[in-house]
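queue> pop job 88
queue> type: inverse folding (structure -> sequence)
queue> payload:
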């Protein structure tokens, strides 16, 4: 799981860098629009595709670190065995959801390459296939992350008898 978390960390760093570049693009577009009455062509299309990419690049690390949104309202009222069953259900549901997204997104990604699909008109056309394949890859990785966390949870249950898995620490993610 160390290799997976290392890849997830690099995807997260890539995502953070991407957000920084987008911030610079927005500032440049606003300044160009305000000072020179000339916005940067394609800013809207770049941002539109980047939001999806940035979000999905952050998913695997969020899963590995236990940062996905969850509530303990029901979990707190279950015993250790009931909590384990509920967590297993959640891990499997998450894996199934992201595996389904990866599967459903693969054919449209291939079609986008075949058709040369793009967004935008005029001077700036942004091809959609890179983001579509990124969605496929990160969704598959997120499904793998859920399965890995499920296995780690089960191993912890049987080896240490720990009732609730602890989120991965910085040492676990290196």
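queue> result:
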């Amino acid at each position: 799981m160390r290799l997976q978390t290392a890849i997830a960390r690099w995807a997260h760093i890539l995502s953070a860098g991407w957000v920084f570049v987008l911030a610079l693009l927005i500032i440049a577009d606003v300044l160009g629009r305000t000072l020179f009455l000339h916005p940067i062509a394609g800013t809207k299309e770049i941002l539109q595709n980047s939001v999806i990419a940035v979000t999905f690049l952050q998913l695997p690390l969020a899963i590995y670190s236990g940062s996905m949104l969850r509530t303990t309202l029901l979990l707190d009222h279950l015993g250790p065995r009931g909590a384990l069953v509920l967590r297993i259900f959640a891990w499997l549901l998450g894996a199934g959801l992201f595996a389904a997204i990866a599967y459903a997104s693969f054919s449209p990604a291939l079609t986008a390459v075949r058709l040369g699909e793009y967004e935008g008109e005029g001077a700036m056309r942004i091809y959609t296939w890179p983001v579509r394949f990124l969605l496929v890859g990160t969704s598959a990785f997120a499904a793998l992350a859920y399965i890995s966390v499920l296995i780690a949870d089960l191993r912890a249950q049987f080896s240490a008898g720990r009732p609730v898995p602890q989120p991965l620490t910085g040492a676990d993610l290196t």
